[in-house]
Amino acid sequence: MLDPHRLSVFRAVVAGGSVQAAADNLGLTSSAVSQHLSALARETGLVLFQRAGRGITPTPAGLELAAQSEEAMSQWGRLDSVVADLREGRSGRLTVGYFSSAGAAWMPRLVKRLTKELPDITVKLVLTEVTSRNVTPDIDIVIDPPDGGGRPGYRKVPLATDPFVAVIPTRHHLVHERTVALADLRSETWVSNDLVGSLGHRIVVSACAAAGFTPRFTVQAQEYHSAIQFVAAGVGISVMPRLAARSLPPDVTRLRITDPTPMREISALVRETARPNPAAERLLEMLLDLNTHPARRGRVP
């Protein structure tokens, strides 16, 4: 079995680019770092580094070991945190995955309430839409793909249906309307608010195709806050999830979209474990309650 400490020293050398850099970062002597590298090479039977001028550089095998060990080291760090929690008398740790609009709209109040009810718990929040690799959340708030596929080791609990809305500047000619047919936006200049090819982008483009047109994206903002600022400046309109358009500046407003209404489904994935996880179940209860009573999170048109 590989020694986790030696593996972490090895990864520090790969990341730092040299034995001396790793030694400085880890608070070790360069001799101690070299000894750990030699011991790891014997354990693995691999040549992990090769000479490059006066220094060393990872071999292809070394680079692969560094890449593949990331998940194992992440899990080891999680176990180390569990030990620290037990030693310091904390009752547990909860890792929660989320995407940005759900994080902004729901998580601050829910985490505050959860930690008030369970003061000994440590909550770790992970923005999984940009950091999904090597993360195993206890509960993960996700956007369902159209095929409704699940995730091994998790049970899926539907939370909410989130319709998309049109975000327009207040000087737009549609500003006095409450709803707009999607086809009526065909001639508008569009500002994207998601990555091309992402699930949210595909939902919007698919709905536009159903309405008989392809949107003309002039600005690829790729995230909600920037897109809203482009709309405020009068560059164009944007179609985004209602959850992302909860808080808008005074010179921007939103309209409901009809014929058709793009929709995204939001679910919680709860990790199935051998032992009950009361904190995860309590957070799930809060999420379900929040989405059963929309007034508690603030309605938007």
UniProtKB/TrEMBL annotation:
| UniProt GO molecular function | DNA binding; DNA-binding transcription factor activity
- Organism expressing this protein natively: Knoellia remsis
| CC annotations in GO | protein-DNA complex
Matches recorded under InterPro entries: ArsR-like_HTH, LysR_HTH_N, LysR_subst-bd, WH-like_DNA-bd_sf, WH_DNA-bd_sf
Read off the SUPFAM superfamilies from this record: Periplasmic binding protein-like II (SSF53850), Winged helix' DNA-binding domain (SSF46785)
Query: Where would I find the HTH lysR-type domain in this sequence?
Result: 2-59
Name listed for the protein in its UniProt record: DNA-binding transcriptional LysR family regulator
* Gene3D superfamilies assigned: Periplasmic binding protein-like II (3.40.190.10), Winged helix-like DNA-binding domain superfamily/Winged helix DNA-binding domain (1.10.10.10)
- Asked if Transcription regulation is a keyword of the record, the answer is yes
